[in-house]
Design the sequence.
């Protein structure tokens, strides 16, 4: 009963996103309609449209939440890493791990993320900008500590992200999952050598 | 007339592949049937099947020829490069340039190559193996000249290819063509720093 009350008190925006995420996981984001979401919530489609102007906005919000989970996990993994080199490795390794886990646990949710990356939805641009900022901060820290020696930390961050494309991009990492090499550790060592 | 005779004398395998490539460029590889190819050649479909067991084999042969053009251009560009660093840059730059040109000049042929890469057709595995061997040879040469210092030249070749994924992979390079950075030159400098 406590839980039921909490759910009633939750704001409608989050309730809609919660239900959408569940339906996306069950039947896929393309098959889920605003009508399905409204039906599950026992509200009218018109009420859903008060909070989301279109289905695309709901797709974007569910995708944003999924990437926010990855971002939160990255921050935890960085907090547990001592050196800039370890932080860099932890960032890419965590993104790869969570994307791979999602692909294995729910391919329908993974499809939403794949599509978002392929079509470069706004949530992906935000996510990638956050990742670039984080990598830039880690590389700057390494620069201050004398571990890295680069001219432009922001550019170095872009290069590391680009070099690690097959490990951080949700669709490409699935495509390359059958290719044993290079491993993520080998690629990180390569990047660390370039930064040193 | 000379040309017509030459064409008659050409072996049927190449004639079929020539016509298939032209039809693929005009209407796309998916819409082209064995019947269309036979009709253009004024031969029976059964005769086409004497040389290619399936449409998939024709797709593979046309794709192989397109990638062979890239391989030939890479070899020319390497012959014009003095140092191992320049050869490495020339290899990736030539692949990027020819893929981009094909995408701009004939998207239907580019689609065949994209599909071949996405589904990892045999011709792609051969092409990538050739590229890996070439990169390994260039890195070994740099190692002998004291420019590069790596433990394993074959692994270093894999890492360079992987780091340059957005420049050498026909589909991914199209997807990332709107992203101005990192440039190919920046990525090559990054790889050269890692190899040094």
Sequence:
């Amino acid at each position: 009963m406590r839980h039921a009350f909490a759910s009633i008190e939750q704001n409608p925006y989050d309730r809609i996103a919660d239900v959408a995420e569940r339906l996306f996981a069950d039947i896929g984001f393309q098959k889920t309609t605003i009508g399905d979401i409204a039906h599950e919530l026992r509200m009218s489609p018109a009420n859903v449209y008060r909070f989301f102007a279109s289905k695309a906005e709901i797709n974007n919000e569910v995708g944003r939440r999924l990437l926010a989970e990855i971002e939160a996990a990255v921050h935890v993994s960085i907090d547990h890493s001592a050196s800039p080199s370890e932080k860099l490795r932890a960032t890419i390794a965590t993104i790869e791990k969570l994307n791979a886990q999602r692909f294995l646990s729910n391919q329908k949710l993974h499809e939403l993320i794949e599509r978002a990356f392929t079509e470069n939805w706004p949530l992906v641009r935000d996510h990638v900008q956050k990742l670039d900022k984080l990598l830039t901060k880690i590389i700057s820290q390494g620069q201050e500590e004398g571990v890295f020696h680069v001219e432009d930390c922001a550019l170095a961050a872009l290069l590391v992200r680009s070099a690690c494309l097959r490990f951080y991009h949700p669709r490409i990492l699935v495509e390359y999952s059958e290719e044993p090499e290079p491993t993520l550790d080998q690629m990180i060592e390569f990047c660390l050598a370039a930064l040193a």
In short: The two ends of chain A are 58 Å apart (CA to CA).
